[in-house]
Amino acid sequence: MLTRLLMAMLVGGIIGVERRAAKSTAGFRTLMLVSLGSAIFTLTSLVGLPAGDANRVAAQIASGVGFLGAGCINGSGPHRGLTTAASIWIAAALGVAAAAGLPLLALSGALLTVAVLRQQSIEHRLLSTRWRLPRLGVPPSAKTAAKAAAKAPCASHHTGGLG
Question: Is 115 among the domain residues?
């Protein structure tokens, strides 16, 4: 059981290091504790409680940690804090995986999470250099057609006002 708890701390810490580097409100210790707490709840339901329903405990962890993550979301801007909340949520999920005896799932999930979180810096570098992505929007030919249509007289004027 100790190895499962240590694995939970490791995967939470991996995500926490990245969040600390990103100057997030939830960093190394927070995500490690979230993952560890989830692992303890899971192990308690698997081993410590007779006839316990581990599925219910996992579901309650997912919804309960959602409330913890909601505290990280603030109204200072659009979508501010969502990534931190998602990081807390996935740290809890990885703690459950570690406690359930799925270390490969827990570790690969942590590494994939860090890859997704680091993707923003790669995207930023791409957009801030000469490798700019094409802008999405209305093609120039459609803009020209829309301007011409706006200048043209309305069809109802030609029908004597009946149209």
Answer: yes
